[in-house]
Amino acid sequence: DFVLLYSNKTIQDRAFSKEFLKMEQETNDNGGACEIKFVETLTREPEGNSWNGLRGRINKEMFATQVPDASERLHYICGVPDMVKGLAATLAELGVDKKRVKKEEFTGLH
Questions:
Q1: Whole-angstrom Cα distance, residue 22 to residue 81?
Q2: 36 - beta bridge partners?
Q3: What is the mean pLDDT of residues 36-50?
Q4: Averaged over 86-98, what is the pLDDT?
Q5: Which of 1, 65, 83, 100 is most buried, judged by most C-beta within 10 A?
Q6: Cβ-proximal residues to 109 (8 Å cutoff; 6+ apart), any chain
């Protein structure tokens, strides 16, 4: 199985969310060989709108609730350099061996 923690600033910034949700539903409903868990969070979405999902940056608490076996998993971090570095540090704090963390920085994103 795998867990995708997916963070965006606002609802308008979400790319591929519908596709990820569809993949999660289809895979899990059809008894696929790999279970998918899609967890989405928004960091700058104003309160009081239609968003009912998680809010805030991906952090230790989110890993603890969404990926309780984080230290046993392989992690792929993709995003802007500061986010990648921050999440790599968070995983280290959770006891994840750095050999289990793969990183890709997208320098053109803001």
A1: 29
A2: 2
A3: 92
A4: 96
A5: 83
A6: 79, 80
